[in-house]
Amino acid sequence: MKIGHRIVRKIRKEKPDIVLTIGVLATTIAKEELKDIPMVFCMVINHERFQLTGPNITGITTEVAIEEQLKGYKTILDSLQDLGVIYDPSKTGNIIESAETKVKDIGINLVKYEIKSSKMVSEALENVIGRIDALWLLPDSTVVTKKSFGLIKSTTLENNIPLLCTSDVFVKAGALAAVFSDYKYVGRQAAQLAKEILSQSASGSLGIVNPDNFNLAINSDTAEKLGLTLKEVRGKPHTIIYP
User: Which distant-in-sequence residues (6+ apart) come within 8 Å of 139 by Cβ?
Assistant: First the structure.
């Protein structure tokens, strides 16, 4: 952290017109040190948890907008109604709060289970598994650990429950699907936001926005085990099918 602050202070002395930060650590330090220099951040998961807002801060979330995630899942699970989610309120409570205002318009009911320790994941699965059509795995470090992901994956498969995620890393590891941002386009979007600020067509901040471009990743082996056909999505733009 000390090195990070030293680097940002050195940048400040150069009096840049704008600063781009990548990741939560760089963005947090820049927020503390660069109060009066416009900055644009990207590659930050759950920015609200880290309070990364301010009059000089513009950013692109890593997460795809919740409504877009759910619409993507419904392209392969058109009868999806009861969506389970296990979460730690201190880590992803803000995501759940936001989701609850949006899911009803899409015809989805959230079946929630709060945990405060990764040791509670097994208990949570037992509680929700018989009441849901699919399980939504958030980027929550209490819920998702190396050990718990194996349990979550095996339990959902054994009970014929699709596992839906926010990263294609988990799809490659056996989850059914993920709606996730395309990092190449996130970089381009960040550049465009910076350009708008530098052109003075916008004041210090353009706020926090979601990625404009995103992909739907599907694991075909898992889909087959769940008895799902992928005819409707094969060949569609921004759709990636593994393996």
Answer: 45, 46, 63, 92, 166, 167
Q: What pLDDT band is residue 201 in, cutting at 50, 70 and 90?
A: low
Helices (H) and strands (E) in the chain, counts: 9, 11
Helix segments in the chain, DSSP class H: 2-13, 24-33, 66-74, 89-100, 121-128, 146-158, 168-172, 183-198, 220-225
**87 burial via Cβ count (<10 Å: 0-12, 13-18, 19+):** buried
Sequential DSSP letters for 204-223: S--EEE--S-EEEEEEHHHH
The overall average pLDDT reported for the chain is 94
Average pLDDT over residues 63-77: 93
Residue listed under structure tokens 């602050």: 5
Q: What is the pTM of this model?
A: 0.90
Tell me which residue of 18, 68, 25 sits closest to 43, measured CA to CA: 25
Residues 6 or more apart whose Cβ sits within 8 Å of residue 18 = 37, 38, 39, 40, 194, 197, 198
Are the C-beta atoms of 21 and 8 separated by less than 8 Å? no
218 confidence band (pLDDT: 50, 70, 90): very high
Report whether pLDDT(204) > 90. Answer: no
Place of tokens 């704008």: 18
- What is the rounded distance in angstroms from the CA atom of residue 145 to the CA atom of residue 182? 24
Asked if the model's pLDDT at residue 114 lies above 80, the reply is yes
* Domains of the chain and CATH, by start: 2-63+182-214 (3.40.50), 66-180+215-242 (3.40.50.2300)
CA 27 to chain centre: 17
pLDDT at residue 203 greater than cutoff 80: no
